[in-house]
Amino acid sequence: MLSKRFPMAIIFIILMVAMMIYPITAVTWSAETRLTEFRSMEGLPSIAQMSDGRIWIAFESNIRGNTDIIYTAYNWQSWSNFLLLTTNENNEISPSLIQLSNGTICLFFASDRTGNYDIFYKKSSDNGQNWSNEIQLTTNENDDYAPSATQAADGKIWLVWERTFPSPTGATDDIFYRVYNGVSWSGEFQLTTNPERDQVPSIKQMRDGRIWVAWCSYRTGDFEIFYKIYDGASWGSEIQRTFSTDIDIDPVILQTRDGVIWIVWTSSKPTGTDDLYYMTSADNGATWSAASELTTNAADDMWPSIAQISDKKLWVAFTSNRLDNYDIYYKTSDEIIIHDVAITSVTPASNVVDKGSTLPIYVGVENQGDASETFSVSCYAQSLLIGSQIITLNSASSTTLTFSWDTTTYNPGSYTIKATASVVAGENPVNTDDNTLIDGSVLVAIHDIAVTSVSTSTSIIAQGQIVKVYATVRNEGNIKETFLVKAYYDSTAIETQEVKDLGPSASKNLIFNWNTSSASLGTYTVSVTAPTLPAETDTADNSKTDGTVRVKFPGNVDNDNDVDIMDMALIARALGSDSEWPLGTDWDMWNPEADFNGDQRVDVIDLYIGGKHYGESI
Predict the structure, then answer these.
(1) Quick check: 12 pLDDT over 60?
(2) Pair 166, 197: CB distance under 8 Å
(3) What is the pTM for the complete model shown?
(4) Alpha carbon of 266 to those of 70, 302, 423: distances in Å?
(5) How far apart (Å, rounded) are the C-alpha atoms in residues 294 and 596?
(6) Which residue would you say has higher pLDDT here, 580 or 2?
(7) Is the pLDDT of residue 277 over 90?
(8) pLDDT > 70? residue 95
(9) Interatomic CA distance for residues 267 and 224, integer angstroms
(10) Are 514 and 528 within 8 A, CB to CB?
(11) What is the DSSP letter of 520?
(12) Hey, what domains does the chain have and what are their CATH numbers?
């Protein structure tokens, strides 16, 4: 029986794993369109879309005899006339076009005007109407070719290129780079040091902030595609991406709008023809698709350049000699559709809620993709589910959901609030970081104050004297409290005091002064009470008593309701004693009945009180 069930378990696991893998939808490509029809050689195109929506393709051409950089721009109706970007009588090759975040268009290229090839660039701040002078970036005595540039999210411009060195066994190449910080260019950094040829780099920053550089290398005995990644602190190891027996060269790298990373390159077949191939990664390079053929013409197709365009399509420009001479061609993919939902905000109605109360939590949700999506949104306090809702959102629309958090069953304390949106079908894992949002915390408050101790300065007091009532209150809840505390003798209030901003687990000592002038002679119970706070449930310790205080006739020691010579004699016997002395009515003994003002000693004040009331009776 077990042996029959085991294969089914394996199949189930395989199916579950397969469901977790992001499916890369097969891409359909348009036919190739010929862009140039000169009777010269055009090659090494660079394609980019500018902020005004136009698509530029710059390329090298020897139409004037020497090699120049030429460009044309597509305004979504037609391509413009071909315009020279360089006019030097020497050779300008290998263009790389980018537009900066401030709108400046930069053209990087290699020129041999100095006697060997160096990297130059020029800029336009008005969409190509006017250009700056050409600025030299490298001055090495060796040849520098194939620049590739990108602007990172922090505004820095990264430039990579290949440098050719003479070698006893033939030329060798390495990859170098510089970084512009907005003020000046850094020095040169060598990215590869392999003794074999490392050529034609391509650089891009991905959504996770990492900088990728891809190039081709001869280190394996034939040319293969390699790449390495800068994580913001250091460069990773060099990773080989192709392993064929063909010659794989001229890579370009890009991340499309759905988060998929593409590498497109030229592959030379044993038959001697070149075609374009590509492979993709939907998980930031952890896994890659198999190589797919992009062009299949019997002629040579080479030197690709790729760009994600606002029509949602991937555009590929390349060079081909399919009509005898080398011309620029391009083709486009079908629309790259994004499936992407996001939590944009999590806002509790308050950052404090009384235990047992219900707190609204508002969750902002957005469909950032291209298709209508139905998905689940869940709200949590820590890992405890508050609630879930199923919603449908059209493309580029948003809504705010309300979750009602009933805190009755939750322990008091601080809870981190988060919301999650379920991953929708076709959503790339690199786009799911915003499917969860954590926003601060909410305190589930317990209100609990207590009177922990009550005592009095004396248990016997002469009418008209002051009794001090000592009390300690404590905040046994988890939130600051401000409240009033009252002291009583029997049911008559003595005094009210405010306790302000008493923190959790904190205590405060209070002293109430009871003026007994208005109290009748007799014995009274002293108590201290704190009020019941809103939502407070533990109220048994909000009040506390401490025995009794007897209010007696002033001057009357023997309690016979008059003040006579006997009382004066008893005062005299106890004069000078205090509560630390032996208790009694004889000489040099402590007699609390003679302590009329309750200060725990018999002194001249008590003698004065007795004398003042001598001869009086009730």
Answers:
(1) no
(2) no
(3) 0.73
(4) 22, 5, 36
(5) 109
(6) 580
(7) yes
(8) yes
(9) 9
(10) no
(11) P
(12) 341-445 (2.60.40.10), 446-552 (2.60.40.10), 554-618 (1.10.1330.10)
Q: Residue 459 corresponds to which amino acid?
A: S
* Interval 262-271: pLDDT, tens: 999 999 876 6
Longest Cα separation, the chain: 142
Mean pLDDT score, 3-8: 36
- The 10s digit of each residue's pLDDT in 475-510 is 999 999 999 999 999 999 999 999 999 999 999 999
The whole-number average pLDDT for the span 21-50 is 87
Q: How far apart are CA 611 and CA 603, in angstroms?
A: 13
Q: How confident is the model over 177-203, as pLDDT tens digits?
A: 999 999 999 999 999 999 999 999 999
Helix ranges, 467-577 (H): 565-574
| Token pair for 54 | 């136009």
The encoded tokens of residue 248 equal 């794989």
Cβ-Cβ contacts under 8 Å for 438 (sequence gap 6 or more): 346, 416, 417, 418
Tell me, what DSSP letter sits at residue 23?
P
What would the two tokens of residue 353 be?
Answer: 């809620």
Task: Give buried/exposed letters for 155-187 (b at 16+ CB in 10 A, else e).
Answer: eebbbbbbbbeeeeeeebbbbbbbebeeeeeee
Q: What pairing do the DSSP bridges indicate for beta strands 436-445 and 352-354? A: parallel
Identify residue 83 by its one-letter amino acid code: L
What does the alpha-carbon distance between residue 500 and residue 483 come to, in Å, rounded to a whole number? 7
Which of left, alpha, beta for 17 (phi over 0: left; psi -120 to 50: alpha)?
A: alpha
Cα separation, 415 vs 385, in Å, equals 12
The whole-angstrom separation of Cα 549 and Cα 491 is 14
Phi and psi angles of residue 412, each rounded to the nearest 5 degrees, phi first: -60, 150
Residue 377 CB burial class (10 angstroms; 0-12, 13-18, ≥19): buried
Residues with Cβ within 8 Å of 375's Cβ and at least 6 positions away in sequence, in order, are: 341, 390, 391, 393, 421, 422, 424
- Encode pLDDT of 545-565 as tens digits: 988 999 998 888 888 888 888
Beta strands in 206-357 (DSSP E): 211-217, 224-230, 239-240, 247-255, 261-268, 274-281, 292-293, 301-308, 314-323, 325-332, 341-348, 352-354
Helix axes 565-574 and 604-612, enclosed angle (nearest 10): 180
| Secondary structure class of 517 (helix, strand, coil) | helix
Number of Cβ atoms within 10 Å of the Cβ of 264: 25
pLDDT exceeds cutoff 50 at 15: no
